[in-house]
Structures are given as structure tokens and as C-alpha cells.
Amino acid sequence: MTLGRAAHQKPGQPGRTVAGRGEAAPEAVSDEATPARHAQTDCGVDDLLGQALTRENMARAWKRVKANKGSAGVDGRTVQDTGEYLEQAWPDIRTRLLDGSYRPDPVRRVGIPKSGGGTRELGIPTVVDRLIQQALLQVLQPLIDPTFSEHSHGFRPARSAHGAVLEAQQYVQAGHRVVVGVDLEKFFDRVNHDILMDRLAKRIADKRVLRLIRRYLQAGILAHGLHSQRFEGTPQGGPLSPLLANVLLDEVDRELERRGHKFVRYADDCNVYVGSRKAGERVLQALRDCYARLALKVNESKTAVAPVWGRKFLGYCFWASKDGAKRAVATQALDKLRERIRQLTRRTRGRSLEQLAEDLKGYVPGWKAYFRLAQTPKVMRELDEWLRHRLRAVQLKQWRRGTTMFRELCKLGASVDLAARIAGNGRRWWRNSAMGLNRVLPMAFFDRLGVPRFS
Fold first, then answer.
1. Count of C-beta atoms within a 10 Å radius of residue 396
2. How far is residue 445's CA from residue 362's CA, in Å, rounded to a whole number?
3. How far is Cα 59 from Cα 31, in angstroms, rounded to an integer?
């Protein structure tokens, strides 16, 4: 569906100017974003809610919500269903947002398994509420983000986990070889609403926006058909949650800066780099006090003062070399990768090598892109060898019988002697896949299939 001009605008008229912003409103938005049809553009520079509800901003928010996809909330409406629903409902929703009578729907609780065991609880807002939150985020982030510490990297424009890892490496290279690694206990579930809103009110003047954000914080939870109220926490799953988390934790960042510490933070994962264990213990106690003032609790089982070598941070670790500190993939991340590859290449899946190559292309490139900073080419070459070893074993199992193995190996150019030796070993697929089969099914063979490389 193509969205036309606002109803009061005649065809051929130039777009109106957004008051206080000097931006010409586009003539049309070529998208299915129904809210953009009704959103107005006459808001003042201090009217943050009005800015959030402009036609242009709502159109951008809708595009982002559509791109993120995501499942339905408690109302059961998918993204497509919501687009159709908003054709008629948006003018009323917008009016209620502006007059303060809008009430967000409860979030739908979903548990997803964590890599280290246990379950992470997500709160999935309805698509309508995700749209409104995204629109607010697009207005608030440019105002609030510049006030954050330079050492904060999580969920910020033009920043990433890679920047955090590189900054941490600089501190280690400079001789800070002891790390205070702090983990917060159920951070997103323990955020104190009053403390958060107090910190937010120091950055936002629009009372309507503050009231709407508090209502999102207090929106109930629907789990297993039961509705419950929420008195603390900000649900993971809403577009605003990462920004709100940074607002709260920036106070700790400023305290660390005031004390002159070398530190890096990504969301609730904070590492402070010091020169000795004794200094690290002092820093850890100071951090406990800072978090306590925010009504947050340190997870003592995952918090430690330890030598930096081998300590996991955002999936990476550091190892000592003659040139100082090198970046590597943490052991836990490698274990998780290998387990996932085993699942994708199980010999009992009954999928051809071509199909397995497609499965791997959906996982390996993303993993490789995230860990592209690793300075361990040997590890990546070993992963390539291990993966091809598994795929050769899969192929042998699919051939199953010795006569089939012999015939297919000869077709691929194997000598009669080599084909006979491999076929004669019957069902010993893993051992067979290393018995000269790498000469018959070399790296180039898997490259032609499209199997991605790690190195």
C-alpha cells in the first residue's frame, strides 16, 4: 500500500514545514506504514511527543518495526495484521497518546534458553506498542545518547561490541593486566522504576513522554494465560529498553570516570582494568556501592577480580604474546560454535551436502563476521579442517555400502587402490574421512558447494 499526502493537503502542493525543525515533509511515503498517513507535522521544538508522532518519524519507525519482524504480542496481531488494523485505529490511538489517556497492552512473556544454561525472560510488546516505542526512541536517542560516557558501547549508534573489545585491548596493552569483571543479577528484571524515572527526568523535559514511558515500564505481564502487574524491571524485547538501561548505568560510568579508572561497558557487562589484584578488590567494592545506590545487585558467582588472560568479554578473550595482548575467541564461544556445527551436520539428518552447505551459510558467515577481530589464524584453519572432516564423514555415511563408496570415489578421481581401502573400512565414517579422502574431497570441492570458510 502506498501512503498518500495528509488528507488536508492538495495534490501538487509542496510538503509543509515541521515547525521548529525546518524540515520539509515528504509528499508521500511509499510504504505500508498506516500511521504515517494521519501523523501531523506541526509540533514545537520542545514537544518531544509531538515530534515522535510526526508523519516522517512514524513512517521511519514503521519501516524499522517491519524490518525487525518479530512475533505477535498479547493481542495476537502480526506485523501485517497490525498494518491493516492501524488503517482505521491509528487516529484514535494518536489522539489518546496526545491527551494522555493511552494505556499500553501487557507484554507477552517468552523464555529463551541461555547459552550458559538457564532461561532468559523476554517481554514481547504488541506490534502497536513496539511501533510507538520505536518512534519515541528515534526522537529521544539523538538527544540523550551524546550525554553518555565514551566508554559505553552497547546499543548506541555507530558503536558496537567490536569497539568495546578494541578499547579493552588498549588497556591490556598499556599494562593493566588485572580485570574486574562485573555481572549484574537479572539486571533488566531488577530496574527500579522510580530511580530510572528520576534519572530520565533530568534529561527529558516533556512530561507527556515521561508519563508514557512510566506506563510502558508498568505495563503488566501475560504468561501462561495469567496477567500480573510489574513493579520493577524493563522488559527485554521493547525498543526503548536498551536506551533506558544506558540512562540508568551511565551514573556508574561517570563515577568510574571521576575516579580515573580504565573501563569498558557494553549494556550491563562492565570490565574495569587495573594494575593489581589489590586495586581490583577496591574497585569491586566501590562498584558494589554504586550499584546498590541504583537498587541493583552484583551477581557474585559471575563477578571476579582476575588476571585478564583468558577472561571472557563479549565472546572474546586476550592471550599474551611477545607483542603484548592478542585477541582470540573465548573457549566458551568456540564450544558453542562446535556444538551448533555438530547439530547442523549430524549424520542422521538425512540432508545432502548441498543442503548442509545452505544450512551452514545461514550461520557461519554471521559468526565469522562477529569474530573477525580474532588474531588467531591457526584456530580458524583448524575449524575449517574440522568442519570439512565432518562433511566428508556425512558423505561416506550417505553412500553407506562399500560398493557405492568405491564407485562414487572412482567417479571423483580417486585411484582404485585408495577407493578400495576406503570402501573396505565399511562404516567407520569418521576415521575413513581422514584416510586420504581429503585428496578426493579437497577444500576446492567444498568451495564449489558453497560451504563457507572460517579462515
1. 27
2. 19
3. 8
Query: In this predicted structure, what is the pLDDT of residue 356?
Result: 94
Q: What cell numbers appear for 257 in the block?
A: 570516570
Query: What's the Cα-to-Cα distance from 25 to each of 30, 146, 188, 407, 446, rounded to whole Å?
Result: 13, 26, 37, 69, 52
Whether 413 shows a pLDDT value over 90: the answer reads no
CA distance 358 to 312: 31
Give strand pairing partners of 107. Answer: 221
Q: How confident is the model at residue 33 (pLDDT cuts 50, 70, 90)?
A: very low
C-alpha cell at position 451: 560451504
What is the pLDDT, as a whole number, of residue 417? 77
Residue 70 cell numbers, joined: 518479530
Q: DSSP character for 301?
A: G
Spatial separation of the C-alpha atoms in residues 371 and 162, rounded to whole Å? 9
Q: Are 19 and 42 in contact (CB under 8 A)?
A: yes
Distance CA 287, CA 259 (A): 11
Cα angle for residues 381, 386, 390 (degrees, 5° grid):
150
CA proximity to 261, closest of 319, 176, 197: 176
DSSP states of 28-97 as a string?
Answer: -B-SS-THHHH------TT-HHHHHTSHHHHHHHHHHHHHH-----TT---HHHHHHHHHHHHHHHHHHH
Q: Is 221:234 a contact under the CB 8 Å cutoff? A: no
Q: Does position 45 have pLDDT exceeding 50, yes or no?
A: no
Q: Which pLDDT score is estimated for 80?
A: 94
Q: Which three cell numbers stand for residue 211?
A: 508519563
The DSSP line for 99-139 is HT---PPPEEEEEEE-TTSSEEEEEE--HHHHHHHHHHHHH
The gap from C-alpha 279 to its chain's centroid, in whole angstroms, comes to 33
Is residue 312 exposed (0-12), middle (13-18) or buried (19+ Cβ within 10 Å)? middle
- Name residue, grid cell 599474551: 320
Residue at 446: amino acid letter: F
